[in-house]
Design a protein that fits this description.
The structure is a single chain. By secondary structure, the chain is an alpha/beta fold. The protein has one domain: Glutaredoxin. The strands form two sheets. Strands 2-5-4-3-7-8 form a six-stranded mixed beta sheet, with helices on both faces. Strands 1-6 form a two-stranded parallel ribbon. Helix 4 links the parallel strand 4 and strand 5.
Amino acid sequence: MNCGACGNGGLPIGRLIRGLSAAALVVLLTACGNAPTVDKKANTGAAGLTTMDAKKMGERIRAAHGTVVVVNVWATWCPPCVAEMPEFARFHAETKRSDVTFISVCANAPDTIAAEVKPFLEKNKITFPVSVLSNADPVTIGKATGAEVSGALPLTLVYDRTGKLQKMLEESVTFDSLMALVKPLL
């Protein structure tokens, strides 16, 4: 995944890229610098944060059938993702009910949960549940979610009550723009 704000020519990659296929390596090298490494070892030790793969994310979306589902994929190293966190905190607080399901998924590498993700959530007083992707490969995410994702972050997916993808945004959203998408689906 790459930060939509950086595009090509972003900051140099600051972390060692390991365990990636050649295709994924090309995507990361042309993406936003500071992109996380992908580590297949799940780290679930930080404040109840858990990892999940794209398949599990797709299962969670399908399990929420009958509700409007909003999925936000973000990362601590992505400036537009960080900027929209208060918007999602407000959205979560104002839509805590049985007809809306909010799924927050962090694209940081699992081995950064304790050092980066947990401190970020605490500093920003994020109270909604967050899972960390065990593999942030855009192709795998696209297959699991039924969306044609490019790999840009932030990524927001909005599904209607039947589970049909209604909107995919690879850009920052505001509370008002998100509510404008969700309200007609309720």
